Amino acid sequence: xxxxxxxxxxxxxxxxxxxxxxxxxxxxxxxxxxxxxxxxxxxxxxxxxxxxxxxxxxxxxxxxxxxxxxxxxxxxxxxxxxxxxxxxxxxxxxxxxxxxxxxxxxxxxxxxxxxxxxxxxxxxxxxxxxxxxxxxxxxxxxxxxxxxxxxxxxxxxxxxxxxxxxxxxxxxxxxxxxxxxxxxxxxxxxxxxxxxxxxxxxxxxxxxxxxxxxxxxxxxxxxxxxxxxxxxxxxxxxxxxxxxxxxxxxxxxxxxxxxxxxxxxxxxxxxxxxxxxxxxxxxxxxxxxxxxxxxxxxxxxxxxxx
Length: 306
Fold this sequence. Notes:
Blueprint: H1 2-35, H2 37-54, H3 56-59, H4 97-133, H5 135-150, H6 153-164, H7 168-194, H8 198-205, H9 210-218, H10 223-247, H11 258-266, H12 274-301
Helix pairs in contact: 2-4, 2-12, 4-5, 4-7, 4-10, 4-12, 5-7, 6-7, 7-10, 8-9, 10-11, 10-12, 11-12
């Protein structure tokens, strides 16, 4: 009877919390965001780039590979010889730099979002199982994570990209698998801390399955740290993808990406600096926006900072 009463009490509390939590938490997040101008600016920057990536065809005045050699090497419109038909100039093939920066947004946003999503899924699953089950599972998974983290990250990424070839899908998979140990270690530590909490022990006492305990009682309480780390990893992946493109190991050269544009602009930096300047500014601006959002999430999700 006592066990049944405990089960009913937990069910009632969980139901009430599910009714009240989303509205209360959403309202608090909106309130804290409106008070944090840097977080608001970061969110605006990120949303702007997401909109640009989705509606690139409608925003860009020219196609990603449209070019006319008669219009090659036109400087930005405010410089001598420039034209407002190409606001930030053209490259050596007559391709509009502004349009290529717009289309290049898709590569960076896609790699950052899906790469982090894959890394979080793999790492959180592995780390949660290692922390909750313990024993041989914990030893094997922890040893694998430690081995991967002991090797310099860029060495793994560059070697793997060179082996599997240039493809957007390959880049996402490479970043997803090589970044997953970061989330695995974080998830394991969070599970080791949370599994001794009273509400987890109560759920175990009423006979809740291990899967239910992980999904319902533990995972929601470690979402905050995971999301915070995810934002910083997104920023890192933007730089890593651009670096791989610069080295010729990311997407094919015909696909417009900021890294490919930087690699091309490097050869003309003294005479056509705008080819490299504007994709570089786009990389810096998007990374700044993501980092500002990450700082904001850290401040509101970590109770020690409030």
